[in-house]
Amino acid sequence: MKNINEIWGLYDQMRPQQIEAIQKKTPIAYLPWGAIEYHGNHNPTGLDSIKALNLCIDLAKEKGGLVFPVVHLAANLIKSYPGVDFPKHSIEFSEKLIRNICEEYLEQLVQQDFKIIVLLSGHAGEPHQNILKSVAKEFNKKYPDNYFWAFAEFDILPDDLLVANHSALGETSLQLYYAPTTVDLDSLPKDREICLELDAVSGKDPRLATKEFGEKIVKTYLKNASIKLEELIQIYI
Ligand SMILES: [Zn+2]
């Protein structure tokens, strides 16, 4: 059995008593929201999910709470992005469905007595990401004693470190940090510029990605997210 003094855990891998021991001290739920989406030849289809899960776990290790399984459902994928042709390796859902799932999920997390819900969105498509944020905003009005914090990692990072990108320098560096064996930088062309139409990359050159840069992003994210979460803990718990 796991140590009862654990401050965090993976919700779906724990028994009720273990869950309640953590929840009693820290009623925070982390909901990593990812996607199954084509991320070029150099990254796996689950990049957004792997990123969201690991960023949630790292934050839970700092501040405590329970990490739920990743929601691998997303709208507005590169599959339907105008001007590009990447029909394969993406599983896309409607905006309406994403809103419904988000509402039903958050509602039940409230019923399960979580006070703070951290919804970390790994997929930067729009309006997908805005839908999650707007549901959180509605729930903040509906449940003033709870707080629903929906955000993407780049929302709390300076622009010179990370901005919204698709399989570019930022996402690829994070993937190299969290799951290096899933990345193949050699699959990127060496003799031309990287572009959205051919490489499914939006943002800075992923050929410059390193594990060290990924670690730098994670460390700054953790610092900023911990400050924000501590403020929320002081108010809502
Ligand atoms: Zn992505």
TrEMBL record:
UniProt keyword terms in alphabetical order: Hydrolase, Metal-binding, Zinc
Lineage of the organism: Bacteria, Pseudomonadati, Bacteroidota, Flavobacteriia, Flavobacteriales
Family note: Belongs to the creatininase superfamily.
Gene3D superfamilies tied to this protein: Creatininase
Cofactor(s) this protein cannot do without: Zn(2+)
Entry's Gene Ontology molecular function annotations: hydrolase activity, acting on carbon-nitrogen (but not peptide) bonds, in linear amides; metal ion binding
Biological process, per Gene Ontology: riboflavin biosynthetic process
InterPro entries noted in UniProt: Creatininase-like_sf, Creatininase/forma_Hydrolase
Pfam families in the record: Creatininase
Protein name: Creatininase family protein
